[in-house]
Amino acid sequence: MAAPIQRTVRILFRLSSSTLQPLRQYPSILQRLPVRTCPGLPLLVPPSHFYCKAASLHEDAVQAAEALSRYKDRPWDYLESEEYIERYGTSPVWEGYRRNHKGGIPPQKTRKTCIRGDKICGNPCPICRDPNIIIHHQNVKLLQQFISPHTGMVYDSTQTGVCMKQQKKLNEAITTAQDHGLLPFQIPFVEYSGEDYSNSHDAVGTTPSPPSLTIGDTWYKWYSEMTPDENQVAKVKKTYKAYLK
Ligand SMILES: [Zn+2]
User: Fold this and answer.
1) How far is the CA of 42 from the centre of ligand 1 (A)?
2) Exposed site from 140, 175, 193, 205, fewest CB < 10 Å?
3) How high is the pLDDT of residue 24?
4) Is residue 38 part of a domain?
């Protein structure tokens, strides 16, 4: 009886070893599986409310990485690509963006940043929401979208909805582009006031000969003490009456 029992034990041992080995490998196989398997969920659910948020974030990160590798070296190529035209058309990237804020009056500043580490906020700003948009001083077409064509001023972040972090980058890029001659400067128009800038005035004209050295006499007449006009003094005093002690 001992021999058959031993045989059965051996067979059982072999069987168990052959069946258990795949099970032992199973966790490692599970780890190797792609993360993007979210079965039985409708496609219309926004990714922020997904319970497999990590998977969607992972996909976003992968997409962002792909985009970065594609447009990292030449970010201005994206502005002429088909996907850009399909997404934005001819309007600027910030058009139609709506800020989320509490109450009826929007805050004076936009949010500090949209992306903290690997966390992206629910309503990222026009620049943060599209990983293909890269702020660079040679990306002139993008920078021009943030400059008013009428005044040449950079649009305020409250108008475009860009977060403070990206706005800072944007301002730096615009300044650099202007320094490199890629963007025009806006110089304010100064109206000629009709003042005499010629050197006919005594102060800038030829130096007169020294006056006779008498006591109390000055080289120029405006070096000496001048008594202002009484009427003018009275007028000024009247104007600033409330502020004079
Ligand atoms: Zn942002």
Assistant:
1) 28
2) 193
3) 43
4) no
Whether residue 208 lies inside any domain: the answer is no
Residue 159 φ/ψ, nearest 5 degrees: -80, -40
Q: Is residue 93 part of a domain?
A: yes
Distance 124 CA to ligand 1 centre (A): 5
> How deeply is 71 buried, as exposed, middle or buried, from its count of CB atoms within 10 A (0-12, 13-18, 19+)?
buried
Distance from C-alpha of 78 to C-alpha of 84, rounded to nearest angstrom: 6
CA–centroid distance, residue 197 to ligand 1 (Å):
50
Residue numbers of the domain that contains 122? 48-97+109-179
Query: Is residue 227 included in any domain, yes or no?
Result: no
pLDDT in tens, 131-144: 899 999 999 999 99
Model pLDDT for residues 146-161, shown as the tens digit of each residue: 999 988 899 999 999 9
Query: Which residues, including other chains, have CB under 8 Å from residue 128's CB and lie 6 or more apart?
Result: 113, 114, 115, 120, 163, 166
